[in-house]
Design brief:
two-stranded antiparallel sheet; globular
Amino acid sequence: MKRSLGGILGGALLVLSACGPTEDGGGGVVGDVCTQTSDCVPNACCGNGTGVVNVSRAPSCPAPNACPAGSPDPTNQTLLNGCGTPYCDGTGHCVVARQC
């Protein structure tokens, strides 16, 4: 059975796209696409985020004051226990700006 080169390449691209975020070539992971910092939000509510996503994939957070005791308000955009904030980098991808 013969397969066309286009079919093989198309299948390979489909498999790669299903694997998750793309690496940036330097060992890091390229985040969601953005044009400005307000496009990027934490991937979890109440300061419990571990990464950032585009606002189109933002989690549905509880109302203010509904976070567990000791957690920031869900409108607070910090993550990684207050050591990071969402940021749109110079390459147009959402990243964590570390502060600690």
